[in-house]
Design goal:
Blueprint (H helix, E strand, L loop, with lengths): L16 H13 L19 H9 L5 E5 L3 H16 L4 E12 L6 E2 L6 H9 L3 E7 L1 H8 L4 H4 L4 H17 L2
Length: 175
């Protein structure tokens, strides 16, 4: 389910306050989710109304914060960790996205956005580092085709990175 289904394809979502809260209520309480083990909510970075409302209205087993390793992105990620801690939502850990790019031509690896930012913040914040997701064109192409990398390329190192993180989260959640 996606907010994208609620608006025209090229229309911006310019909702504030009550409109966002109403859509959130509908997504959480009126969608027939069926029997779920896990419901993942992919939220924009920050500590706004949406994150606060979810933490107040839904019993959350935990939050996972995803960030690229550069300092400017980490500022928002740290605020997210601290917000969830403040509202007593367990922070299951952080994931470093776009951690490394490996050139398909020469196989040289480059840490375009830095290399240790998320791991460093995890240590400072006392939260678990859940893993790295590489920067790779196939991840984007797979998503554009509607096939997660773990389905499209299950034997790739990229899929294995996603699976290792998912396995670790399942263990932490006891499922």
């Amino acid at each position: 389910m996606s907010m994208g289904y609620l608006v025209a394809e090229n229309a911006p979502v310019v909702w504030r306050g009550l409109m966002v809260m109403k859509a959130l209520q509908q997504l959480l309480h009126e969608v027939e989710w069926g029997g779920l083990d896990v419901l993942v909510l992919d939220l924009p970075p920050g500590t706004g109304d949406t994150q606060l409302t979810i933490s107040q209205q839904v019993k959350l087993d935990g939050a996972v914060i995803v960030s690229t390793p550069q300092d400017i992105a980490l500022k928002d990620a740290v605020k997210g960790v601290n917000m969830f801690k403040k509202v007593d939502v367990p922070v299951l850990g952080m994931i470093q996205n776009m951690s490394v790019f490996t050139c398909p031509h020469c196989s040289k690896s480059t840490h375009i956005f830095g290399s240790e930012g998320v791991a460093r913040e995890c240590k400072d914040l006392g939260v678990d580092f859940l893993g790295d997701i590489p920067l790779h064109a196939s991840i984007c192409a797979d998503a554009d085709r509607g096939k997660p990398t773990v389905v499209a390329e299950p034997e790739s190192s990229r899929a294995k990175a996603f699976m290792e993180i998912a396995t670790g989260l399942r263990r932490r959640l006891g499922i």
